[in-house]
Amino acid sequence: MAGVSKVAPTPLLKDELDIVIPTIRNLDFLEMWRPFFEQYHLIIVQDGDPSKVIKVPEGFDYELYNRNDINRILGPKASCISFKDSACRCFGYMVSKKKYIFTIDDDCFVAKDPSGKDINALEQHIKNLLTPSTPFFFNTLYDPYREGADFVRGYPFSLREGIPTAVSHGLWLNIPDYDAPTQLVKPLERNTRFVDAVLTIPKGTLFPMCGMNLAFNRELIGPAMYFGLMGDGQPIGRYDDMWAGWCMKVICDHLGLGVKTGLPYIWHSKASNPFVNLKKEYKGIYWQEELIPFFQSATLPKDCTTVQNCYIELSKQVKAKLGKVDDYFLKLADAMVTWVEAWDELNPSGEKAVEQNGVVVAK
């Protein structure tokens, strides 16, 4: 009809979601994401030299924090935020006031689906988060809430309502998220497989969480999304998202929350240097053989009913059991407590403070 202009649809959860981006460089990559990100609020966490000026394309609504800001806002508790490592992104989770977080790396570009259409990764993450998870019984058609799918014959009706989804873990085309040894033996390997599926990770199953294309419900699981002590001054790097994923999954299993993986895909544009990565990962590759059994056997007491309670309890177990592996884990366990204290200071709730062994774990 003449004279009627086409109105763009309002983005999903426009006022309830922050996009968190860790970076050390100008954010030119945002230009390609403009159609999908422009109406959302961005939280940029600048790593490295705080005197360096990071340029952000015009038209984006954003706040930018560098190391000086982190030190100013958190004071002594800033020690729990990693420096010179993408783990600094979790500061953005802490200062956000929104219900949902989507985090993406600055070398992640818009991918295309098999038909050649640009993938709106953010929209798919939101769909994942707004539909239930089914971790207690596996559905062979994967996500039963997706259009064109349902629960298959033999799926218990008592479990079909599902449980709230806390985390949506997206994947990558082009450069796979490999560790250094795999990068070294497969330097030319590229992921070209677009698997059109989302599935719930079963209860009791751990997975390697990648932080470069990830979304979560901050209100449900935020205090567990701590990316640990990595990078500058630490004996390990590139295990920040792994650590958060293992802690988060144990807590989600305990509290009855779900985790999905699969769609959406992003295009991971560049491989990091495998020799540099090997230096960062070396201890992690060695330690993970003890970390995985630790998390697989970790249990939380019934009276841990909040994420903060659970996380403090997990920190005690880290100190008691992993402290024997290396002194680093004693320091990491203390940082986990500091993280929760800082989270609660910046995110006070109406609940009365709960004190556990002299530590305030919920406010």
Automatic annotation (TrEMBL):
It comes from the Eukaryota. One of its GO terms (cellular component) is cytosol. It is found in: Golgi apparatus. GO terms for molecular function: UDP-arabinopyranose mutase activity. InterPro entries: Nucleotide-diphossugar_trans (IPR029044), RGP (IPR004901), RGP_fam (IPR037595). Coiled coil: none annotated. Probable UDP-L-arabinose mutase involved in the biosynthesis of cell wall non-cellulosic polysaccharides. This is UDP-arabinopyranose mutase.
